[in-house]
Each structure stands twice: as C-alpha cells, then as structure tokens.
Backbone:
C-alpha cells in the first residue's frame, strides 16, 4: 500500500468511488458523498442543463446554505482544504443527474 499525501490529507487506500448517475430534484437534498475521513479529492460532474447547488453538509440539514453553485454543463473539483463530511446536492429547479468521483 502506498502512502499518498495531497496537502494535509493522507490516503492509504487505492479505493476510488465513481458513482452512477445520482438523480437530483428541487424538492429534497440528496446525499452525493458519504463521510470519508481519508478523502483526498472530490469531483462532481453536472452534464445537465440545470443549476445544481452543492452543500458541504448532510442532506437532512434544511437551510439555504450553499457551498458551490454548479452551472449547467459544469465540473467541480475539491482538491485542497478537503472537506471530509457528508456532501449533498439539490437543483435550483427541475431535475438533473450528477456524477461523483471521490478518493
């Protein structure tokens, strides 16, 4: 096993999580990534024509705090100052599918 360090984050596993399509809507936040203490990189791809709102908090937390606004056909990568808690998302309106890569 190789010890990989990026910034202050250390990952001692070669496991990469790549999601199937995660369906979002404007009514209920959805968890797009679980808590992962060894997270080094987190990426979200929004190939849809909808705005997706990403929150660095659990889907069960109901508030208007948004961490990242993803515009249609956009990509977001968190690769420094990595947040290791649950990540959730919701659309601004309508439905959209996003794809997540997490390692």
Residues:
């Amino acid at each position: 096993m190789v010890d990989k360090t990026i910034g202050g984050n250390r990952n001692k596993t070669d496991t990469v999580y790549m999601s199937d399509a995660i369906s979002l809507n404007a009514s209920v936040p959805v968890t797009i990534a679980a808590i992962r203490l060894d997270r080094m990189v987190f990426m979200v791809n929004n190939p849809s024509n909808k705005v997706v709102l990403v929150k660095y908090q659990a889907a069960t937390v109901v508030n208007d705090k948004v961490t990242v606004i993803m515009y249609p056909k956009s990509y977001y990568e968190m690769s420094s100052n990595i947040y290791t808690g649950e990540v959730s998302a919701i659309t601004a309106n309508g439905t959209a599918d996003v794809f997540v890569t997490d390692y």
Notes: The chain has one domain: 21-102. The first strand starts at residue 4 and ends at 6. Residues 1-6 have pLDDT under 50 and may be disordered. The CA atoms of residues 56 and 91 lie 15 Å apart.
